Amino acid sequence: MSFASVVLESWVLIACAALSLGIVGRAWWLFPWRRLETDHPLQHRLLGATLCVALLWQLRAQAVDWLSLHLMLTVLLTLVFTAPLALLANGLVNVAMIVLGKVAWPLLGVNLLVTGVVPALVTVGIWRLVDRRLPDNLFVYLFVCGFFGAALATLASGLCAVGLVLLGATNPEVLRLVHDYALFLPLLMPSEAFITGMLLSLLLVYHPHWVLTFDSHRYIDTK
């Protein structure tokens, strides 16, 4: 779920842009960019994944001109590339949507928050729970981080979008429609969870070393 045209007050747009910039900036500051500079296969995978996500975002349901329903795949990006690179990819995709005329440019901060920051934070929280508290098991990682994590992140993202409308929209028609769109959240959750879990399963089977949050020596008994 993301915004396609401006229906929020200016102060909400500014606040979301500042919050997104602060969180993304901190994530990028802490990331060891030297690794990305020297790892050319990682660069290719990141750019390829960004392009694929941008193409998948074209498959969107948009009954009204200000709100779109589509897959985010931010959970998959976060698990595969870690949060800083996932936010970089998400930011590039959101910029691409603006360049293609799908989204108004003042909504960059809002959409980055809804489709990038919120699901990435949820994913990081669930991954840390699995990493520190749950048994070292491949299926625990796959189902909790992949399937359950994607469903929960989608719910959090949708509730964030609904909350922003309730907080910053003044048009009564927009306020009425957002309640109707909130009913689609239970339908978005399983689809996002299935696609994320399926793609993550394929990566863990064929290229587990591509998934940077997955330690094959820890989660798979190689003895």
TrEMBL record:
Leader sequence segment: none
Subcellular location(s) of the protein: Cell membrane
Gene Ontology biological process terms from the UniProt entry: transition metal ion transport
Pfam assignment, any one: CbiM
A GO term from the CC aspect: plasma membrane
InterPro entries documented for this protein: CbiM/NikMN
Topology relative to the membrane: Multi-pass membrane protein
Residue stretches spanning the membrane: 12-30, 42-59, 71-93, 105-127, 139-169, 181-206
Protein origin, superkingdom: Bacteria
Residue ranges that the Swiss-Prot or TrEMBL entry lists as coiled coil: none
Major location (coarse): membrane
Keyword field: Cell membrane, Membrane, Transmembrane, Transmembrane helix, Transport
Record protein name field: Uncharacterized membrane protein
